[in-house]
């Protein structure tokens, strides 16, 4: 054997002068292996297409069953619920800082972009009103009636639609004139989507603007957001007992949006409602302030580290979501962007 050169081909060792039978065997094994790989890829695409169909029909249980059945199988969904997470214990603010996390910049979002747009619109309305008064000679009585009409419309929106019309107008203007705001919302929702999938919660749908939500949901008081297949969580809540694993998942999902903004921009603007909802959940479960702080700090650390580790996947996912890709297509992008060894 020492004097013979060896050639390795698809797992079969051949001498430099192989016989025809050996070549035939080798070629056959090569064809079989390629065919298997091809079937595996098609299989995952077929599963995700079926998941999209079930989600469209509103059959969350069937969609989740499909995902779980393909979970961890060769060529299946290897990333679903497979994220490596930090040990759960009480973390101090100093430990968060050691990991490059300033909690106050992450957990105290102020939407300065929309706030600035709203103030500018108010100033423009006042200036426009004064200009119209001078140009058309509008009487004080007419100004009173116009103001009264606007006040009535504002009250009607607040009472009947929960401020939905005003939010729709403001959000639409924000997406139209501020590319920064538009990008921030997309990245925020991509963070929710990615973290949810990695910790084992199936995203059901997403919207990236109030107008998008109006078209898809038919509701005025729904803003940009990501919905999840959460019937298991609701069943636990209704039973009055939420498991630690379930709480951990949803805590991370709730903080994924603000964590994404923090990592990209250095601070969070959106996501105040996410934090409030998590706070209400923890209070509803009877958490003391110390226990709630511990839960939030662990969730922040775990979520930020997940997002840092899979930054490339989040960026590709955000691009897909900006184009309105289906949930199944977005999941496929995650699966293709993350190596199992990096989970």
TrEMBL record:
The lineage's top-level taxon is Eukaryota
One GO biological process term is: proteolysis
Which GO terms label this protein's molecular function in UniProt?
Answer: ATP binding; ATP-dependent peptidase activity; metalloendopeptidase activity
Query: Which InterPro entries does the annotation name?
Result: Peptidase_M41-like
Name by which UniProt lists this protein: Stress regulated protein
């Amino acid at each position: 054997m020492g004097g013979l050169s060896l050639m390795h081909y698809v797992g079969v060792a051949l001498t430099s002068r192989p016989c025809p039978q050996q070549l035939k065997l080798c070629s056959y094994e090569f064809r079989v292996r390629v065919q298997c790989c091809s079937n595996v890829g098609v299989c995952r695409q077929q599963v995700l297409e079926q998941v999209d169909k079930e989600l469209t029909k509103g059959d969350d249980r069937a969609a989740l069953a499909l995902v779980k059945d393909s979970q961890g199988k060769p060529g299946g969904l290897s990333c679903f619920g497979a994220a490596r997470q930090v040990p759960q214990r009480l973390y101090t603010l100093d430990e968060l800082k050691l990991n490059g996390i300033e909690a106050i910049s992450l957990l105290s979002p102020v939407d300065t972009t929309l706030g600035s747009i709203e103030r500018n619109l108010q100033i423009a309305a006042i200036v426009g009103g004064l200009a119209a008064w001078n140009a058309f000679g509008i009487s004080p009585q007419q100004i009173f009636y116009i103001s009264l009409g606007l006040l009535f419309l504002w009250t009607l929106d607040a009472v009947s639609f929960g401020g939905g019309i005003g939010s729709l107008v403001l959000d639409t203007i924000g997406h139209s004139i501020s590319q920064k705001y538009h990008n921030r919302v997309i990245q925020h929702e991509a963070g929710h989507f990615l973290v949810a999938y990695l910790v084992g919660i199936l995203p059901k749908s997403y919207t990236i603007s109030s107008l998008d939500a109006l078209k898809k949901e038919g509701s005025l008081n729904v803003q940009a957001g990501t919905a999840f297949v959460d019937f298991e969580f609701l069943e636990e809540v209704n039973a009055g007992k939420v498991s630690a694993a379930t709480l951990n998942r949803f805590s991370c999902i709730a903080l994924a949006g603000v964590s994404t903004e923090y990592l990209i921009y250095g601070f969070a603007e959106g996501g105040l409602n996410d934090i409030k909802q998590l706070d209400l959940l923890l209070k509803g479960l009877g958490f003391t302030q110390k226990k709630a702080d511990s839960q939030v700090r662990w969730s922040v650390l775990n979520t930020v580290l997940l997002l840092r580790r899979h930054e490339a996947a989040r960026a590709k996912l955000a691009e897909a979501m900006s184009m309105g890709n289906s949930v199944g297509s977005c999941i496929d992008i995650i699966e293709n962007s993350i190596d199992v060894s990096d989970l």
